[in-house]
Write a structure and sequence with these properties.
With 309 residues, the chain is an all-alpha fold. 66% of the residues lie in helices and 2% in strands. A two-stranded antiparallel sheet has the order 1-2.
Length: 309
């Protein structure tokens, strides 16, 4: 039996492809691209929330936010480790990110202007992430699939944290509720953009679904997110900023307006509100932390030498 045929049989049987198994080069490259982009997004995504740690309104909120940002760092580490099982070094992935050759989620190129944005990120951004990532727990590649089980559990908790924050604001003063509405106005459309381009414009979806890396198309995931989120906004008593949003009884789904795809592609191509600042901050952190990596490497070398002796 040819390697290609055996590989597809494993995938079709809902079994896992492991690092030691034969896999098509295209499958390996697709996974590296996707896992790296996911890992980069977790690490870059620490910045907009980390920006508010020192300005959290209470010690309780500060502790929650610190824990959440720490979780995101852990997710990045899980994912870089998963990518390394495909034969790529994480330092290579860092360099590709720093050079602008690797992408991360466009959502993290928007600024966090006030405290309500932290709630909106938890509710909308992590909510969109969960919608997109639950299917990845059934990804055909074993290390990625297993990493996503823990990540999804933690992201689900983050989503609930963000929503609880907004509940408190919406139950507070009129000014606090207005902050929540303003945050929703600014984060709604970028959150819908997180699911990527329309299926007809996606260059990777068809093959990724055939390989069972991906299970649900971009547009179907986006619809799931809208259907899930509209009732939550209604409960908060704030309005989704889409005049075309309405329930379609025939489809059993919400209809919603068109995304500004010019803005989507502008941000993806590196021209969003915070693209340059996000990457510059990441590069500086990498360079400032070089001594830690060098010290850890030297310590490991000495430990191996003592053990060998």
């Amino acid at each position: 039996m040819a390697n290609e045929e055996r590989f597809q049989q494993i995938v079709d049987a809902e079994e896992k492809i492991e690092p030691t198994d034969w896999m098509p080069e295209g499958y390996r490259k697709t996974l590296i691209r996707q896992i790296a982009q996911h890992a980069h997004s977790e690490v870059i995504g620490m910045q907009p929330e980390g920006n508010w740690i020192t300005r959290a309104p209470s010690l309780h909120r500060k502790a929650i936010l610190i824990a959440k940002v720490q979780d995101e760092a852990g997710h990045g580490l899980y994912l870089y480790s998963a990518a390394e099982t495909l034969g790529v070094n994480r330092d290579e992935l860092q360099e590709l990110l720093h050079q602008g050759k690797h992408k991360y989620s466009s959502i993290f190129n928007y600024p966090t202007l006030n405290w309500a944005d932290i709630g909106a990120i938890g509710w909308l951004v992590d909510g969109a992430a969960i919608t997109n990532q639950v299917m990845l727990t059934r990804c055909s590649y074993g290390p990625y699939s297993r990493a996503m089980v823990r990540i999804c559990k933690e992201e689900s908790f983050h989503q609930r944290q963000g929503y609880e924050l907004l509940i408190r604001l919406c139950q507070g003063t009129p000014e606090q509720k207005a902050m929540a509405q303003d945050a929703l106005n600014r984060w709604w459309w970028p959150s819908l953009m997180m699911f990527g381009p329309h299926d007809s414009d996606s260059t990777h979806t068809e093959q990724s679904m055939a390989w069972k890396i991906k299970r649900v198309s971009n547009d179907d995931l986006r619809q799931q997110f809208v259907d899930m989120t509209v009732p939550q906004a209604n409960y908060l008593g704030i309005s989704i900023p889409d005049p075309d949003l309405r329930w379609n009884a025939d489809r059993g789904h919400y209809d919603f307006g068109d995304i500004d795809w010019d803005e989507f592609w502008r941000v993806v191509k590196g021209n969003g509100p915070m693209n340059r600042e996000r990457v510059a901050h990441k590069v500086k952190a990498w360079e400032d932390g070089a001594w830690v990596r060098e010290a850890a490497t030297a310590y490991a070398s000495k430990k191996r030498a003592r053990t060998a002796a």
